[in-house]
Amino acid sequence: MHRARALVAIxxxxxxxxxxxxxxxxxxxxxLLIWTGGGPGGEATQALGAIFARENGVDVNVQIIPEDLQxxxxxxxxxxxxxxxxxxxxxxxGNLVQNATIDPLQMTDDTKAGYQDLAIKAVTFNGxxxxxxxxxxxIVLFRNTALVPDAPRSMEELVQKGTQLxxxxxxxxxxALPVGPTGDPYHINPLFTSGGGYIFGxxxxxxxxxxxxxxxxxxxxxxxxxxxxxxxxxxxxLKRSITTDNILSLFSGGKAxxxxxxxxxxxxxxxxxxxxxxxxxxxxxxxxxxxxxxTVDAAYVASRGDNxxxxxEFVTNFWSRPDTGTALYTATSSVPALKEALATVRAGDPxxxxxxxxxxxxxxxxxxxxxxxxxxxxxxxxxxxxxGGADPxxxxxxxxxxxxxxxx
Amino acid sequence: xxxxxxxxxxxxxxxxxxxxxxxxxxxxxxxxxxxxFPLIGTGNWLGLAxxxxxxxxxxxxxxxxxxxPAKYLIPGxxxxxxxxxxxxxxxxxxxxxxxxxxxxxxxxxAVAAVEGSSVQQVPxxxxxxxxxxxxxxxxxxxxxxLLTDPATKAAFVGTADGLEPxxxxxxxxxxxxxxxxxxxxxxxxxVSARSADIVEFSVPTDRGAIKNQGLSRAFEGTxxxxxxxxxxxxxxxxxxxxxTANDDDGLFVDGQGQALAQGWQVNVxxxxxxxxxxxxxxxxSFLKILLWxxxxxxxxxxxxxxxxxxxxxxxxxxxxxxxRLYRSLIILPYAMPxxxxxxxxxxxxxxxxGLINRLFGxxxxxxxxxxxxxxxxxxxxxxxGYNYMFLVSTGxxxxxxxxLTEAAQVDGARPFHAFRTITFPLLLVALAPLLISSFAFNxxxxxxxxxxxxxxxxxPDNPQAGATDILITYTYRLAFGGAGAQYGFAAAISVFxxxxxxxxxIVSFRRTHALEEIN
Amino acid sequence: MAATDTLPATTGDETVVRLGGAQxxxxxxxxxxxxxxxxxxxxxLFPILFVVSAAVNPLGTLxxxxxxxxxxxxxxxxxxxxxxxxxTWFLNSxxxxxxxxxxxxxxxACAAFAFSRYRFRGxxxxxxxxxxxxxxxxxxLIVALYIMFAYVSDLWPAVxxxxxxxxxxxxxxxxxxxxTWLMKGFFDTIPKDLxxxxxxxxxxxxxxxxxxxxPLVTPILAVTGLLGFISAVNEFLIAxxxxxxxxxxxxxxxxxxxxxxxxxxxxxxxxxxxxVLAVPTVALFQFLQRYIVGGLTAGAVKG
Lengths: 408, 519, 303
Fold this sequence. Notes:
The complex is a heterotrimer. Chain A is an alpha/beta fold.
């Protein structure tokens, strides 16, 4: 498997190399420049780009931009050096649109119908579809089935089981949920929503409304009171010492019976040999549903690319193919956005199916409006402070006023 | 006798010297010619004038009998001006604008983007199967769209004048037109070559226009929002809502003060500077942050220099066994990617799982209190930075003539006394500028804070000013933490930070007499 | 050996010897130096052990709770060389690092010579200016450089984006800087009588510089050369914007591409790459040290 992927990647590299050599002078083959982030998704995009190149007799150059792709893409567009296509998360759309860097796509109803509803909703901004979704993610609860055979139905049950295991010495931590010294609003969102909080309300059109800031509402304080009870001064379930860097080793080493994370952990987990299963993140007893954020990766047509017709062809006709979706799943272990690809994947990998089910049933789209960029930092710090024992009411209201001051 | 310009004017007499000079000046001329062609080709006369001037200056300096210092300074100075001074000037110029996300381009670009992003498919209209063709030569003829209605297989030709039925078209099984009399069907390479024309092209219809979406599909769309030069506003066709241009802010704003997403860049005068001075958030925490910033920068210089010098002195004994290996391995931290190493260190300070607490049996929440967080940051910087000080001290120590210390010893001075009175002052003269520049670097050492503590701990009631924030991390949060990066505002902040650092540095120069020594 | 043992070194070591009141004892002579050296080594190398651990650990996470890897293999190194373009990146880094180091050392030494040996108008302002220009917060300059190079790339693609030459030129922008000061300080310690007498003998300024001064300052050339090499090889911010073609990337850019996504499992490969990349630096320093301990001190020993 790995070897096959490596081969494809090397072929892509060789092709890119030949093109770099042949590029100058000779009557140019039409070429498509694609920018993508690093990691397995970037490598897979290189391999897929080579397929498109072969099928259409064009050159495809997939460049991996390791650092801050979104900013680089905006700067490059401004300087007139934009690529034709860029790959990125759906929450970039607000910023990319306000900088006039991407074009809306005209998707037929047939094409739309092939996608999961949430995926299309995520890439819709001000009534227009801007990106072709390919993978989507949400966080779920992983449990060590050797320690906990059955999925807990509530947070309270999870805490109770974890505490038992901890006091009997079978585990050292109850739950590996990343908080870190400055908080992590993405990972805490299921608990935040189950406790009665929300970040932005929605307008009738389905767009997020920056004027309706849920962080400033009483529900947010109530939710954080519950989170505080789980924190360092309370049950000791949530800790600032638990971060995205150490959750996997805590869980796979059997030190924590539960972990809240996403499907991107699956390839690693399979290597460790720990026995585990997946279920939705449980809500508080008697609380609201626990809603993880849905994030969608999508392909966008750059407004100022050199070869727009080819870029549209690539994005609307090639990137929406089921085999492309499954190839990207294979590389990233993320949920395919295309229904047909998901069906194929689900048959061979029930775990990804479980992630998808949890997302479909409970997930909420991560807001893509530019105002969302203001929320992460203050809300995260409030989370860290409350987990450390600070008073929820005053902490959250300080965060809310910091957010409101910057939304303007 | 006054010597004139010439290859040997400055006394270069050896054949080797002359040959080198000829080759180098020849290279300069060749590069100038090479660089001139594209400038001429694009009609960039200003650029050409600058190029000619620079070349002339280089020639006159190297052919002149005088201006000897300039011969040695010109290469570095050129690079410095182009790659350091010009970008600084550009940044300064943005401080007077609202340059940032949503305000990057011109008003025309904003208008085009508003209209373009409001194009919607006409309700109930056909999505055609498309073949792109030309009327005439593929390279130069007018673009036409050969269209098929997928439901009825009816064929049309769309030109800049409108849509007409097409009778003699050959279709493949998908309905795509593969041949039509009088039209040249473009292959993918030809389409790419005409890409700019195709972007411009659309087929006008009663309800809007037909545009292509990729190579094989076309739809009838119409922009929902259109700019009206008469009222200098954008109007929505269906709802009638209007957004009027506000040229002070570079935004289209409606009656309720809601703005369209796409704005443009405008000059704002000193507004950014005034904002820095009057921003209540900045004012509330400025002094506290400045104090720690100074403490951090001075502290890092002090401890890295102290440890670096100490180790350099200790290992600077001729004949010390393993000396080379010691030195090579001690600088290893400097050769590792700093970003990754800061993350490793951050992990080592983890309260429950970090190595430091476990090794020393502690239970310290390192980033939970101001003193411990500061300590952790300084320790990380000591590790990252003492190697540099070790390296330059090792180099500088070689410059101190041994006979000086020898003489002191003959005079009966005790070795430590000799070090303090002779070696150290000499070292300091050589290294003071480095120490000052290290201070300036650390004063703005963004990653040192951001990757280790992110400014933590933060007081629960103020998520914006952490106990270990320095000015640059703090203002970064203000300028880039909002709904898009505000480069103009950040540039204005940079000016203030620069003034602070430069003032301190110049005062330090005076104090260490480093500037006096340079005469 | 005897000669060096009695050589009055330039340092404060005799303090200890005198304080001890005797000339004897291996420890008092050199042993304590080894002790300090070993402590410094331990401090330097300890955090790097985590990188080593991650590099041989097939489960590629960054976590210091796992100093002892869960397994040991060279899988990450194999992936690094087979699955990524690391060999190309590494080669690019070496070419750019060595050229940038050599050229900026030369440019800097020229300027230091002018500042040290000549008195001219604007000298003080120039010296101060090259320090002050670098005190402007750097993080905003990337955008300016990008826009500038967008023009350059359109006009002269040969030195534009994704070219080694362009990046090299950019790095030379920093050649006049602290290193110039460091060299100038070193040049100042060489008595001016030396060049005066050479000039009396008919030497030109170029002969003084290349024939007389440069050979005397090899220690500082070696140090600045190494500093230049390290900073060019590890430079990431500018390079990541400048080099987007996979084949043009330096190792620093390429390696970060492996771990830039937060959700990734490539840290082990990254760690392996970081270690491989550190090898040339250490080797170069090993090699350059003969010039550091040469130079003036060597002359003094013979005298």
